């Protein structure tokens, strides 16, 4: 079913209204400085931070991609959303304070302050490539796929339309225009997504949403499994083949293992996400906004997964023809058939709003990294504030155009959400290690970080070839262990001194002063506390994966791979606790007061943990 009449009118009015609003914001608050354009003048209140985080995150890959995975795999795909809630709390408490202390614009900028310019430049190029060729292109493709079904226009027309829509407020207005349109769009997104879920669940439950969910749970218990076994499979909608569910969502790895790499990388070190928190008025305001976003994440599976499960129920249990050729077409089908007239146009507008928000955020962040980390550093170091803003606009337009050109190439993919996760996973373990060790491991060197980053992608590809049956989340855990070992070992054999002898003397004097009995021992976080913190991360990701592979053998994964996990886990833990190297000259001094949070945030964090415990206690 396609949009027509009232639905088309509502959709058109909404799109035009948002474009006008974005242009008005852009012209009302013209960006005079780089801080205005890239960080909204560091003036965002908590509700804008939280709303923009969700609007930037929830896009076509969630609403369309996760419903497609829900159709084929079930509720287990919701782990990406549910575990993100607790990850957001951790990012707000332990990572964000360090970034705001450094007053940075971009993630690569932090890498230069902690390591050196080479690490910064390489990561800048990698991130821009990831944003343009993976993130922007996939969101444009999935959005255009929905437009193709609901408006009966060719795929390329949908892509062009989304590019124009996103460009209206992402290129000229900078982050401020993106964030304020996000605030509007997140309301429409939540409302529209809820309407779509309400429509199909009410149909399943014969007028009752709760009855619909209960019916799905009783009739399709396999689709409500949160932790798969190695023997679990699903039928690929596009090809009709039986494929492994476990390989995509490997059981306990969703709670203890590679999922922590996915979520910590995405919410903690992903420029287009963390940029909203960097633009907050203050640290407490940013933390409040992130806690707000964490609560919203708990609600997302209601409309990002359940409609897909309901569609599977209608196909398999009621014999209704679900007219799709691939899983990612499920949500547009639900929208076209189970949402009432008028609401259908509003829900489709919400979908396009989500796509526009995410694309705008990615484009703004890609242009931020290019301008701050490449243009200002290598091409025009003396660029004026006005010139930086202009270059950011040119970079944003270029990112949109290239992403649009690449987008149609994804037409052959099924479950694009999983494609995004796997390809991002080639980069994320090494990036996570470089940042975590850079922030909390005082002995890490620039040379060690450079090797970890350069080897990350090729080693991931090598293990994908050698161990094709190893789930990509487990492969990410393996790469995390290898990267951690490399970071510690290589830091021990590379120089920790600054190139300037005078700076070394200054740092030496500062170190002696810090160790003086007259200086309070509470001034800096204790070394053993930091070692314990890194060790906990290694246990949660590496040791738990090793134990699971021993207890729950995976067909096709050889014994030597399991032993490799165990040996690497023990080796990294031993290195952490026996390491007696001197500090690197760029090590960050972390005061305990930096990580103190307000009572409201602490209560919010506890509430999120309790809700997650109830969900997994009931379903797992």
Automatic annotation (TrEMBL):
**Gene Ontology molecular function, alphabetical:** D-glucose:sodium symporter activity
The entry's keywords: Membrane, Transmembrane, Transmembrane helix
State its location(s).
Membrane
The main location is membrane
Q: Give a single Pfam family match.
A: SSF
**Membrane topology category:** Multi-pass membrane protein
Q: Name a single GO cellular component.
A: plasma membrane
Q: Which residues cross the membrane?
A: 6-25, 46-65, 77-100, 121-147, 153-172, 179-201, 248-269, 290-315, 394-411, 423-441, 448-466, 472-493, 534-554, 560-578, 599-619
Name the domain of life.
Answer: Bacteria
Keyword Membrane (UniProt): yes
Q: Does the keyword Cytoplasm apply?
A: no
Family affiliation = Belongs to the sodium:solute symporter (SSF) (TC 2.A.21) family.
What is this protein called in UniProt? Answer: Sodium/solute symporter
Report the source organism.
Neolewinella aurantiaca
């Amino acid at each position: 079913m396609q949009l027509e009449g009232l639905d088309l009118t509502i959709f058109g009015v909404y799109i035009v209204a948002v474009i006008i609003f974005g242009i008005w914001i852009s012209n009302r608050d013209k960006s005079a400085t780089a801080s205005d354009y890239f960080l909204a003048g560091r003036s965002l209140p908590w509700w804008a931070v939280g709303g923009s985080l969700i609007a930037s995150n929830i896009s076509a890959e969630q609403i369309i991609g996760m419903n497609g995975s829900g159709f084929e795999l079930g509720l287990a795909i919701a782990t990406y959303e549910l575990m993100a809630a607790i990850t957001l709390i951790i990012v707000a408490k332990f990572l964000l304070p360090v970034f705001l202390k450094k007053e940075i614009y971009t993630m690569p900028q932090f890498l230069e302050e902690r390591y050196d310019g080479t690490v910064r430049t390489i990561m800048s190029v990698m991130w821009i490539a990831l944003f343009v060729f993976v993130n922007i292109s996939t969101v444009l493709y999935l959005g255009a796929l929905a437009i193709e079904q609901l408006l009966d226009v060719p795929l390329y027309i949908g892509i062009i339309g989304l590019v124009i829509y996103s460009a209206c407020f992402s290129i000229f207005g900078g982050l401020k225009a993106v964030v304020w349109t996000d605030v509007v769009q997140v309301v429409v997104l939540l409302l529209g997504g809820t309407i779509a879920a309400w429509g199909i669940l009410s149909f399943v439950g014969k007028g009752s949403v709760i009855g619909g969910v209960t019916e799905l749970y009783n009739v399709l218990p396999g689709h409500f499994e949160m932790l798969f076994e190695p023997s679990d499979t699903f039928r690929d909608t596009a090809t009709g083949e039986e494929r492994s569910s476990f390989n995509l969502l490997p059981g306990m790895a969703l709670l203890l293992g590679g999922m922590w790499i996915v979520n910590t990388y995405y919410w903690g070190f992903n420029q287009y996400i963390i940029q909203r928190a960097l633009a907050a008025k203050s640290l407490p305001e940013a933390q409040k906004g992130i806690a707000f976003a964490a609560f919203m994440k708990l609600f997302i599976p209601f409309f990002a997964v359940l409609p897909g499960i309901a569609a599977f129920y209608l196909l398999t249990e009621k014999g209704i023809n679900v007219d799709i050729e691939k899983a990612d077409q499920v949500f547009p089908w639900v929208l076209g058939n189970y949402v009432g007239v008028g609401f259908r146009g509003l829900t489709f507008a919400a979908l396009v709003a989500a796509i526009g928000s995410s694309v705008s955020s990615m484009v703004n962040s890609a242009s931020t990294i290019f301008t701050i980390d490449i243009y200002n550093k290598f091409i025009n170091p003396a660029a004026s504030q006005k010139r930086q803003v202009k270059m950011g606009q040119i970079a944003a337009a270029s990112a949109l155009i290239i992403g649009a050109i690449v987008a149609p190439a994804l037409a052959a993919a099924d479950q694009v959400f999983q494609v995004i996760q796997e390809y991002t996973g080639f980069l994320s373990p090494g990036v996570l290690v470089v940042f975590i060790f850079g922030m909390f491991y005082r002995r890490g060197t620039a040379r060690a970080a450079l090797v970890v980053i350069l080897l990350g992608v090729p080693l991931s590809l090598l293990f994908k070839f050698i161990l094709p049956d190893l789930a990509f989340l487990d492969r990410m855990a393996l790469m995390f262990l290898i990267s951690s070992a490399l970071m510690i070992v290589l830091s021990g054999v590379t120089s920790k001194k600054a190139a300037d002898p005078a700076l070394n003397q200054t740092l030496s004097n500062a170190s002696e002063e810090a160790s003086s009995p007259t200086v309070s021992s509470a001034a800096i976080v204790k070394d053993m506390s930091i070692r314990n913190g890194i060790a906990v991360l290694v246990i949660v990701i590496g040791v738990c994966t090793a134990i699971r592979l021993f207890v729950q053998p995976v067909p096709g994964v050889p014994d030597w791979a399991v032993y490799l996990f165990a040996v690497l886990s023990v080796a990294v833990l031993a290195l952490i606790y026996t390491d007696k190297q001197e500090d690197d000259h760029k090590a960050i001094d972390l005061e305990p007061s930096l990580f103190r949070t307000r009572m409201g945030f602490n209560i919010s964090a506890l509430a999120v943990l309790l809700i997650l415990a109830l969900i997994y206690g009931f379903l797992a």
